[in-house]
Design goal:
This protein has 207 residues and is an alpha+beta fold. It has ten helices and five strands. Strands 2-1-5-3-4 form a five-stranded mixed β-sheet. Helix 4 crosses helix 5.
Length: 207
């Protein structure tokens, strides 16, 4: 998630949208806010003291482009942090193919793997039951039966603590590397497309 890399960016866009919502009083329209803030986010270096008319025109074009980009980010911030479904499906398919290649083991490894699976067969969970890990909590792990309405927020609520850190549920492994789930994400849908993933509760990274 982009918010893992730039946790401040989402807060900034929320603040800028609030400023624009009061434009009748502060005269800061969406375009005005974008023009003022864009140079602080999209820096460009210019060399030389003398600026030709061509150079000034290029700088103006860059400024307008940056303002337009920020305007779109403010306007569509609700979907900015969401990976499109078709792209996520492609990533899962690529990882699935890669995993299948890695599982092309020789006979000796297959026999050892079979013995290990038989030994740990009792640890396997029932259909529709996941084990959520929360290494930072006193409840290190918890087996949870999924239903059609259970969301990621329902899980993180069970692991709430007294500190002020915001908890999120992550889908790890299987046919994905690591993905932070939205609070309103339906977990049964994730389970169906990635039944072999791990489920991890951890706080949001901070700068």
């Amino acid at each position: 998630a982009w918010t893992d890399v730039f946790p401040w960016l989402q807060d900034l866009l929320v603040l800028l949208r609030q400023v624009v919502s009061h434009q009748d009083h502060n005269r800061m329209s969406l375009w005005n806010v974008s023009m003022v803030m864009a140079p602080n986010l999209f820096l460009s270096s210019h060399r030389g003291n003398k600026k030709s008319s061509l150079k000034q025109r290029e700088e103006m074009e860059v400024a307008v482009s940056g303002a337009n980009l920020l305007r779109l980010m403010i306007s569509y911030q609700d979907i900015l942090w969401t990976v499109p479904t078709f792209l996520l499906s492609q990533v899962r398919q690529m990882n699935q193919v890669s995993s299948q290649k890695k599982l092309s083991l020789n006979k000796t490894k297959r026999r050892l793997l079979g013995k290990w699976n038989n030994k740990n067969h009792q640890d396997q969970l029932c259909e529709g039951v996941i084990r959520v890990h929360a290494p930072r909590h006193s409840k290190v792990s918890m087996a949870i039966q999924l239903d059609e309405l259970m969301t990621a927020r329902d899980i993180t609520t069970r692991f709430e603590s007294n500190d002020s850190l915001v908890q999120h549920l992550y889908e790890v492994g299987g046919n994905i590397c690591e993905r932070r789930l939205r609070p309103d994400c339906i977990l049964l849908d994730v389970y169906k497309v990635n039944p072999h993933c791990d489920w991890l509760v951890k706080p949001t990274p901070s700068m």
